[in-house]
Design goal:
48% of the residues lie in helices and 21% in strands. The protein is of the alpha/beta class and 669 residues long. The protein binds adenosine-5'-diphosphate.
């Protein structure tokens, strides 16, 4: 039985009745039939385009139906048209089909079966076509949306560079605590916005099918060690215990996209830490046999299980947490810390890596996320026991006992004092604190009286009561000859010189990174253990690199050119470059860049991809013709570049906006 709305175009009443009787035999009782007799009425009915199918007589009075058929299929009627005729004529048949009919039936031979088959077939084809058109429409709408989102987030990156950069810089320049807290709010919100942008960009890439998966061999022991070192700082800040362990025998390397794998694991551990107030976060890594449903395919899987003792998730809301922008925890405190996109992206990424992400949770009891990656197409490898825990138990006491001595941390902000103390305290040094310059001078004098040594002083410049510079000068007058290191967010030219004049030994630019602090300790304190395993030696090597770059700067100040049409973003990038001791020139257009390239001996050129007067790549080609072969080129952009084009041009790095001092340092070191 069929249910449809049919149109019959037939000028002969007997023929109409005959066709209708046949239709009545197999059509659903509720089917609708409209009968029109003339070409004019037919044209009007077809124009309304409200029928699922049309049966059209070939001979309509003095006119033939072919013209009507052509008009209808071309402009007005979207349904299938079946031509009915009194004669069997091959040429006519071909003509009707060419004009757009889906079938051709001879009235004299018409049976119920014939008619039913033709109608069923035509309707089925119409349905398939409709689905196809709808799918295409949906795909194109989704592509347009994703492209729009991708474009939007690229555009937003440039102003964010200025917001983050200037708020960071101002933070170190203002001394009023209230002003500092406002700047901190701007900075935090800027960072939140950046996180959101990155997530939206990832999501739009996933939706547009543009997310590239780049697999390579990933050694699991160093991979999880790095993740541990990164995430443990966050866990320790909340007094949580973070454990990562391997169980049973595991392949030492797997073939996976390292960046995306890392993103997923960090997101899960980050959430576990975020939503846990007391207790611990356990990460267990093991191989298991998975059944379909637990993974994408049956067979061997690598499982990363992240469990916490946190607030848990209501069972009814478990599935919804994977939906974009869903945050199920009730307190606003958590909402502000996230975007609600992390799990949506993680689930998609896991899926693209041939895996499956699932969750079990009890409200108030904690949550467990399982990330299972199918290992079907992995190169065959020997399994063995991976000894990650062992490595850390070896590492941590060594790090704890890495240096000895007393370090005085002087900063008016409690948070900063705590952070610095927390980082360097881990190396085994004794940390003492002062809140302002005056207090610091008093402490140095008391230490001298008591014959106690302060080995290193890390001191903020902008402080109430006595500022850092005055305090350093005072300390030198008192005969203190140990290293005094300035902590400053200021990046103005000549700052370094002013610091050295005031009696500082060196200075560190804010935001201060832990490796910079370790490098200071490494320079001025004696190490307790001669033999240091991986982590400690990494600290040393970072410190050497740091010293090398300082030595290089001392030899001759290096020159960079920043080409960017957004004036704010351009200036802040130049300042970030100057902050690490380089000189930076700016150009706001390709034209200006071409004028400047010959005027200075640039070592590195940072170029924006979308300049108003020329595309970045074309500009690089021109600049290369006018500059020394040793000049290095670095792309700055809100979007990913064309890797092969950049390789051909010799572009060394592609930095995604907003750039920060860490990224600049990486590139220039
Ligand atoms: P967000 O950026 O908000 O963390 P996610 O997509 O990563 O976004 O997580 C979505 C929501 O799922 C969170 O806002 C939170 O309500 C819930 N959630 C995720 N992980 C946990 C966890 N380990 N414990 C409790 N709730 C969680």
């Amino acid at each position: 039985m069929l249910n449809a709305k049919l149109l019959i175009v037939e000028d002969d009443e007997d023929d109409y009745v005959l066709t209708r009787d046949l239709l009545d035999e197999f059509m659903d009782k509720s089917y609708e039939l409209e009968w029109v007799k003339t070409v004019r009425d037919a044209r009007a009915a077809l124009k309304r385009d409200e029928h699922d199918l049309c049966l059209m007589d070939y001979q309509l009075g003095s006119e033939d139906g072919i013209q009507l058929l052509k008009e209808a299929t071309k402009n007005t009627f979207s349904g299938p048209i079946i031509m009915l005729t009194g004669l069997k004529d091959k040429a006519l048949d071909a003509m009707a089909m060419k004009a757009g009919a889906v079938d051709y039936l001879v009235k004299a031979n018409l049976t119920r079966d014939h008619l039913e088959r033709a109608i069923r077939y035509a309707l089925a084809r119409k349905e398939t076509e409709r689905e196809r058109v709808e799918r295409l429409r949906a795909e194109s709408a989704s592509r347009a949306k994703s492209e729009f989102l991708a474009h939007l987030s690229h555009e937003l990156r440039t102003p964010l560079t200025a917001i983050l950069g200037y708020s960071d810089m101002l933070y170190g320049k203002v001394s009023d605590l209230e002003d500092k807290s406002y700047l901190q709010i701007i900075h935090q919100n800027g960072k939140h916005l950046l996180g959101l942008l990155n997530d939206v960009l990832d999501l739009s890439k996933i939706e547009a099918g543009k997310l590239e998966i780049d697999r390579s061999e990933v050694a699991l022991e160093p991979f999880f060690t790095d993740i541990y070192l990164l995430m443990n700082v966050k866990a320790e800040d909340k007094d949580l215990q973070l454990n990562i362990s391997f169980h049973g025998e595991v392949y030492p390397t797997i073939f996976i996209d390292p960046t995306r794998f890392r993103q997923i694991v960090i997101n899960l551990i980050g959430n576990a830490i975020k939503f846990t107030q007391d207790g611990k976060v356990d990460v267990d890594v093991y191989l298991e046999k998975c059944k379909l449903g637990e993974a994408v395919e049956e067979g061997e899987c690598l499982t990363v299980k992240v469990s916490d003792t946190g607030i848990g998730i209501d069972k009814k809301k478990l599935e919804s947490i994977f939906q974009p922008f869903t945050q199920v925890s009730d307190t606003t405190e958590y909402k502000e810390q996230g975007t609600g996109l992390g799990l949506t992206i993680s689930r998609e990424l896991v899926h693209r890596l041939n895996g499956y992400l699932s969750v079990e949770s009890e409200l108030g009891e904690g949550s467990t996320f399982y990330c299972r990656f199918c290992l079907k197409d992995q190169p065959v490898k020997e399994k063995r026991k991976l000894l990650l825990n062992q490595t850390w138990t070896d590492l941590r006491p060594t790090l704890d006992a890495a240096y000895q001595g007393t370090v005085l941390v002087v900063d008016d902000l409690l948070d900063i004092r705590r952070l610095i103390g927390h980082i360097i305290g881990k190396t085994g040094v004794e940390v003492i604190y002062a809140e302002n310059g005056e207090e610091a001078v008093d402490m140095v004098s008391t230490a001298k009286e008591r014959n106690k040594t302060i080995d290193v002083i890390l001191m903020d410049i902008q402080m109430p009561r006595l500022d850092g510079r005055a305090a350093a000068t005072e300390m030198r007058h008192m005969g203190y000859d140990g290293p005094i290191i300035a902590l400053t967010a200021s990046s103005m030219k000549g700052d370094r010189e002013k610091c050295l004049e005031a009696g500082f030994t060196d200075f560190l630019g804010k935001p201060i990174e832990s490796h910079q602090l370790y490098s200071i300790l490494d320079r001025f304190l004696s190490a307790v253990d001669i033999e240091k395993p991986a982590l400690a030696s990494r600290t040393v090597s970072i410190s050497r690199a740091h010293q090398r770059s300082r030595a290089a700067v001392a030899e001759a100040q290096k020159q960079a050119l920043v080409i960017e049409d957004n004036v704010d973003a351009c200036n802040i990038t130049a300042m970030l470059i100057e902050q690490i001791g380089w000189q930076a020139q700016t150009a706001y257009s390709a034209k200006e860049a071409l004028e400047k390239i010959g005027q200075f001996p640039f070592d590195v050129v940072f170029f924006d991809m979308n300049l108003p007067d020329m595309h970045g790549y074309a500009l690089v080609e021109k600049l290369q013709q006018q500059s020394a072969a040793s000049v290095r080129f670095v792309a700055l952009s809100g979007e990913e570049g064309d890797a092969s084009k950049e390789r051909d041009l010799g572009v060394e790095h592609h930095l995604m906006k907003p750039v920060n001092s860490e990224m600049i340092q990486q590139v220039l070191k």
